[in-house]
Amino acid sequence: MKNTFLLLLLLGILFSANAQQKPVFQKLRYEDDFSYLKTDSTKNLYEKIKYIPLGKNDKFYASIGGEIREQYFYTVNDKWGDETSGGDGYLLSRYLLNANVRLGRFRTFIEFQSSLANSKIDPSPVDENELDFHQAFLDIDLIQNKEQLLTFRAGRQEIAYGSQRLVSVRERPNNRIAFDGLKLFFKNKNWQTDAFYSHPAANKPGVFNDVFNEKAKLWGSYTVIHKVPFVQNIDLYYLGLWKDRAVFANAVGEETRHSVGTRIWKTKGNWKYDFEGLYQFGTINSQNISAWTLSSNTSYTFDSVKFKPEIGLKTEFISGDRNSNDNQLQTFNPLYPKGAYFGLVGLIGPANLIDIHPSAAFDLTEKLGFGIDYDVFWRSSIQDGLYAPNMQLLYSGKNTTERFIGTQLIANFDYNVNSFLTVSIEGAWFNAGPFLKEAGSGKDYFYSALTAQFKF
């Protein structure tokens, strides 16, 4: 493990020393743009793989990129003592390698992913998937100019929208998620809109065996409008979900769910905010679905104060089922959320939950940041259970009327070595509340994590 982290440090230093211009890596790597290198006649070895001319036409080129991420975790009392009561250490490794080929109006993007879990007991497909095609899609630009872009995309692709509360790439867990599908998206100066139909890839441990998933579908449309007076930005969306079998505390069966929502957000300036609300309806087995969520995330940065402290407050109200004996289900389904929803180790998922989450962040130096946050959790309905981020039912809640789940304190240091390499340390302590003590062992949970992430 020590040698691996040292190797990543060496790679980060070497790549940074050779880069003439700081690269910008996007959250969705197929959005990386290194076309500015086409006019550079003095490219070094690294820049030569970021822009590879394919003929004399400057619109014909290729680019190669990737990522190595190593994470070491040490945990105590997994699942609050119901899985392991002692300490457990394990190493998660993720390797990504992509190739982007642009031929005028046509573009293809291919990415391989290898996710390994060393010393982790019974790793899930989210933790380990030895090697597979993570993305492989074709783009056709139907309209392509400086003002507008209309593109049709087909194939396996990452999809992410908004704050990734509902549809995400699952960045923080070890194995990112992709979707097999079709997408049509339009962009202009102040707004963009997508329409898509897809099947989430079913990750399976092994090599090149992530086959087409016929057991789940995700479709919908998502529109983002910028420069809106007073509120800055607005998202409007509809998302449809179908699963051949879904499991909740009070319902099991075929699920068809529709989500309609809006998001108002601002990410620039001292004040930042993100407000979102949505309603879900549909059916599961013979029951009707009626679920909802409201979330608020606000922060203020004191630019003139030493360390530029940022004070934030998040709150979430997420519906749970109110009666296990009727034909209604009020349990919210987060669809395909970002995974490690509250901290690097995802203990609790966004369903049947009330969460109050104050936080503070500081820029100790230009490269070193420190953050601390405190979470307080309750069940929104005592008739419903507690869920993991993937909607696995952790505790049904039928044997207790306690509402208070517990509190979680997290602290982290993030060090940006350079544009290629980041190193972070995170520690968390979850103080189990009355619900966890009645539903299970209810021991306090602790984890620490060391992460090194190298991108090129």
Can you lay out the helices and strands and say which pair or pack?
Blueprint: H1 2-18, H2 45-50, E1 52-53, E2 60-78, E3 84-103, E4 106-118, E5 129-144, E6 149-157, E7 179-187, E8 191-200, E9 216-228, E10 232-248, E11 251-266, E12 271-284, E13 287-301, E14 310-318, E15 328-329, E16 353-363, E17 368-378, E18 386-387, E19 393-395, E20 404-416, E21 421-432, H3 434-439, E22 445-455
Description:
The structure is a single chain. The protein has 456 residues and is mainly β. It has a single domain, classed as Porin (Beta Barrel), CATH 2.40.160.100. The protein has 3 helices and 22 strands. The chain has helices at residues 2-18, 45-50, 434-439; strands at residues 52-53, 60-78, 84-103, 106-118, 129-144, 149-157, 179-187, 191-200, 216-228, 232-248, 251-266, 271-284, 287-301, 310-318, 328-329, 353-363, 368-378, 386-387, 393-395, 404-416, 421-432, 445-455. The strands form 2 sheets. It has an 18-stranded antiparallel β-barrel. Strand 3 (84-103) and strand 4 (106-118) form a beta hairpin. The protein is globular, with a radius of gyration of 23 Å. The two termini are 21 Å apart. The model has no long low-confidence stretch (mean pLDDT 93).
By DSSP (H or I, 4+ residues per run), the number of helices equals: 3
**Main CATH class:** Mainly Beta
- How are helices and strands ordered from N to C? HHEEEEEEEEEEEEEEEEEEEEEHE
Profile the largest sheet: 18 strands, antiparallel, barrel
